[in-house]
Design goal:
The chain is an alpha+beta fold. The protein has a domain of 99 residues: Sandwich (Immunoglobulin-like), CATH 2.60.40. It contains two helices and eight strands, in the order αββββββββα. A four-stranded mixed beta sheet has the order 4-1-7-8. A four-stranded antiparallel beta sheet has the order 3-2-5-6, with no helix packed on it.
C-alpha cells in the first residue's frame, strides 16, 4: 500500500469517526424527547359527548376536539414547568374538572388515562417514567441470592 493510499484511508476513517458524533447526538436528543414527553388519553365512557376538553397545567394548555360517547382521544406534549396537571371538560350536565397528576415536571415524562364514567365521575391512572436509566435491571426476573 502506497503512502497516498494510506493517507486516503486515514482521511476516510477520520471522516467516518467524526460523522458518528452528530449521529450519536441526534439519537440522544431523540431519546430525551421521547422519555420526557407526557401523554394523556381521555376515555368517554359516559352517554354524553364531552366538549371543550382541555388538559391544563405545567405551562401547557392542550385542547381536544369533542369526544363522543364511547370514544377516546390521545394527546402528547412536553411539560414546561413544575405544576399540577388538570383535566377540564364540559357536558350537558355541566363542567367536569379533576386532577390528572398532582405533580409534573420537565424532566420526568409520563402517561395518564382519564376516564369519565356514566355518572360523570372521573377516574385517573398515572404511570411515570423512571428517572433511573437502569430500572429494567431492577425489574428483571432474577432469583434472590438469599434464598
Amino acid at each position: 500500500m502506497s503512502a497516498r493510499e494510506r493517507r486516503t484511508l486515514a482521511w476516510k476513517c477520520t471522516a467516518l469517526l467524526l460523522l458518528n458524533f452528530p449521529a450519536a447526538a441526534g439519537i440522544i436528543w431523540s431519546v430525551i424527547g421521547v422519555a420526557t414527553h407526557y401523554t394523556v388519553v381521555v376515555v368517554n365512557a359516559s352517554q354524553e359527548p364531552l366538549d371543550d376538553v382541555r388538559i391544563v397545567g405545567g405551562g401547557c394548555d392542550v385542547g381536544f376536539d369533542s369526544i363522543p360517547p364511547g370514544a377516546a382521544a390521545r394527546r402528547s406534549f412536553w411539560i414546561q414547568r413544575e405544576d399540577t396537571l388538570r383535566f377540564r371538560a364540559s357536558r350537558q350536565r355541566g363542567q367536569i374538572e379533576d386532577v390528572v397528576d398532582p405533580y409534573v415536571t420537565r424532566s420526568l415524562g409520563g402517561h395518564a388515562t382519564v376516564t369519565v364514567d356514566r355518572n360523570g365521575g372521573v377516574a385517573t391512572a398515572q404511570e411515570h417514567r423512571r428517572s433511573d436509566p437502569w430500572f429494567w435491571l431492577h425489574l428483571a426476573d432474577c432469583p434472590d441470592p438469599r434464598l
